[in-house]
Amino acid sequence: MSGLIVQKYGGTSVGNIERIKNVAKRVVNTKELGKKVVVVVSAMGDTTDDLVKMAYTISSKPTEREMDMLLSTGEQVSIAMLAIAIQELGHDVISLTGSQCGIMTSNRHSKARIDNINTTRISYELNQGKIIIIAGFQGINSEQDITTLGRGGSDTSAVALAAALKAEKCQIFTDVDGVYTADPRIVPDAKLIPAISYDEILELASLGAQILHPRAVELAGNYNVHLEVRSSFNENSGTIIEEDIDMEKVLIRGISLDENIAKISVLEVPDKPGIAFKLFSSLAGADIHVDMIVQNVTRSAVNDMTFTVAMDELQNAVNIAQEFAFEVDAQKVEYDKGVAKLSVVGTGVVANAEVASKFFEALYEMEINIQMISTSEIKISCIIDKEKGKEAMKYMHKKFDM
Amino acid sequence: MSGLIVQKYGGTSVGNIERIKNVAKRVVNTKELGKKVVVVVSAMGDTTDDLVKMAYTISSKPTEREMDMLLSTGEQVSIAMLAIAIQELGHDVISLTGSQCGIMTSNRHSKARIDNINTTRISYELNQGKIIIIAGFQGINSEQDITTLGRGGSDTSAVALAAALKAEKCQIFTDVDGVYTADPRIVPDAKLIPAISYDEILELASLGAQILHPRAVELAGNYNVHLEVRSSFNENSGTIIEEDIDMEKVLIRGISLDENIAKISVLEVPDKPGIAFKLFSSLAGADIHVDMIVQNVTRSAVNDMTFTVAMDELQNAVNIAQEFAFEVDAQKVEYDKGVAKLSVVGTGVVANAEVASKFFEALYEMEINIQMISTSEIKISCIIDKEKGKEAMKYMHKKFDM
C-alpha cells in the first residue's frame, strides 16, 4: 500500500500517560504528512512482568494457554489508551487486537509463529482514513485461542504487518537512538551506525545488542522490509536497515557481547551415528534455541558435546541433556553460567583474514582464554569468561579503531 | 444440558488472590459433585473503575468502542487467573472471552444487548470434561468488535448462558446472603427471603435492592432459568428465584428504597397530540430508561411533564429535555437530585386495598410529602424527599410487620 508507514512503540515508549500522549503526537504528525499509519504497541512499562508475577502467586506452573490469555490484556490496554489519546487530538483512529487484525499464528502458546495475516479489516479501516493501532506480541490460532509470540514479539508483529501490507517502511521506536558499534553503556566511545544490512544487524542483534529482535530482522530481510530503528524521545534519524547497503565499504560493523548465555556439556558420549541428532532434535522439540556447538573427541569412541543456550532456557535444556545422557549412557552433564559471547561483526570478517588474526591477538594480549569459537560469513564469536567480557569488549573496540 | 450448573462470581468475590483461590475451591467442589460447571466472572475488585479513571486522564470523552476495548481486559485477567487457580487444584479448565464463547451482541458499545449465543465451543469443551471460565460483561458484535453489556452485564451473561445451555440452575454468588425484605444496612430487622418469584424480585431489584440486575432477572423469567442468589463467603442457602412460588401465601415481600434517581420536569408544554411520544422516544433513542412519568394539566392547553431517570443519566436526559423544550416551545426544564423512590413490593399489593392505604397512612404519619405515585400489579412506589428516605423505609418495614 503506497504511502503506508508501520510504526512500533515498545513498552518504555508507552510507559505512562505522558509518554502515551507523546506517542499520540508522533503518530498524528506522521499522519499529517499525508501518510497512512499503522501503529503496533507493546504493553505499558512493567505490565507484562506484573501480570506474570500475579499468576505465579497462584501457581508455579500455569499453563501457557492461560498465560497468553492473561498477558495479552497488557497490549489490549495500550492500544485502547493510545487510540483514546489520538482521538483527543482530533483524528480518526481504531484499535485492533491481534485477533481482529487477522494475525494468524501456530498453535504453540507463548512462542507462536505468525503463519499469515488476513489484512481485510486493516485495509478497510485504512481506506476509511483511520489511523490503526494494533496490539503487538499477540495473534490467534486455528482454534480461535489467543497466542503470544514470545521474545521480540511486538517487533515481529510490526515487521510482519509491514510485509503483509507492503508498507513504505517500518519504524521501530525504542529508548535508544539506534544501533551502535558496541553497547554504549559499556563502551562510551561507541558510534551510531547510520545504515546497516539485514545480515549484519542480525548478527549484532542476536549477539546481544538488544535493539531489535533477530526474528523481526530475519522476517524483514525475507520480505525486503525497509526498517528504521529510532528513539521515541527525540527526532534523531537513527539507523536504517536495508538490503542494498554498500557492503564493500565497511569492514567491521561492531563488537557485541552477550552475557545472557550459559554453556552445557555432556561428557563422554559414546560415539555412535545419529547421536548428536538425537540430542539436538530433543532440544529443538522443546523450542530451545541452541547457539554454538562444539564436539571434542577426547578418547577413542567417546565424545564431549558442548553447546550454549540462552540463560532462561538453561534449566529446560539441562533437563533434556540429563535425559539424553541417561539414555545413551554418557558419563555426566555439566553447566556453566559464568560465560559470555564476544563477537566482531561485519561483511569484511571472512573476506579479510586480518580481522580474525586481530581478534585473536587482542584476546591473547588480554590473556583471555577462549572456550569455544564459531564463525560465519560476517562474524567471529568466542565464548569467554563472563567476568572479563566488558573489559574485552572495550579493548576490542579500540583494537579495531571504531 | 443435564447436570450443568452456571455460577457467577462478582468483582468482590474475585477481588484478590485469596478470594480467587476461594472461588476456585467452590467451583471444584461443585465439579466434584459430578456436575458440569460453567463459571462467569467479573473484573477483580476495582479494576474497572481504575481503568475508567486511567482513560479519563487522557480524554474527557473517550469513544465507547475504545472504552469497551479497554474495560474488557478486566474480565479477561479474572478468567485467566481463576483458570490458573483451578489448574493448581488439579482440574481440567479453560477460560474463554466473550468472543470465544460465542456471545453475539448488538453493535451498541457500552450498553450492548445479547442477540444470541453460539454454544459450539462451550459444548465442545464441556464434553472434554473441562470446567469453563467465561468473561462476563462482554461479547462481540457483527463487526467482530468487543462490546460490553453495561450495568448488570455479568449477571446477564450468566443467565443468558444458563438459558442457552439449558442449565439445571444459575447461581449468582455475591457479597450478601441473598435477597432481604429491605436493605439490611438501613433496616437491621430485615429478613432473608428464602424464595421469591421473578416478578417480585424484578420489582425489588429495579427499585434499588442492588442484588441482582433486573435485566438478568427479566431474562431468567423469559427463559424460565432457575436462579439462586448466594454469598460467596459462606455456605448459606440464599434466595431461590423461580416461577412457581406460592403467590397467595405472602402479601408483602419487601420494602425498597432507590436513592440513585433524579426528577426532571418540563414545564408548560403546549398540549398537542404526540408531544409526549416525541420526548420519550428521543430519550429511548439515547438508551435512557425513564421510570415514573406524571403529566399534570396546569392550565388550559399547557401541560407539565415530570419523569425520573437514574442519576448517571441525568445530564444526558436534561440535554434531551432542553432540546425538546426549545423545539415545542415549552417554558423551561427543571431537575431535582434530592429525591428517592420508596416502594412496597409483593403479590398482595393490588389484591389487597389495605396495603395501599397502610402505605399512604405511614407516609402521612411521618409527615412526608408525596411528589409522584406509580403502581403496578405487585408494587406501589412514591417519589419523596431523599433526606427522609431511610427513615421512611425503616418506619414502613415496621408498619408492615416484616
In words, what does this structure look like?
Two copies of one chain form a homodimer. The first copy, chain A, is an alpha/beta fold and 402 residues long. Chain A has a domain at 4-175: Acetylglutamate kinase-like (Carbamate kinase, 3-Layer(aba) Sandwich). The first copy, chain A, is 37% helix and 27% strand. The first copy, chain A, has twelve helices and 20 strands. The mean pLDDT of chain A is 90. At the A-B interface, α1, α2 and α3 of A face α1, α2 and α3 of B. Chains A, B: One of its GO terms (biological process) is threonine biosynthetic process. Chains A, B: GO terms for molecular function: aspartate kinase activity; ATP binding. Chains A, B: InterPro entries: AceGlu_kinase-like_sf, ACT-like_dom_sf, ACT_Aspartokinase, ACT_dom, AKii-LysC-BS, Asp/Glu/Uridylate_kinase, Asp_kin_monofn, Asp_kinase.
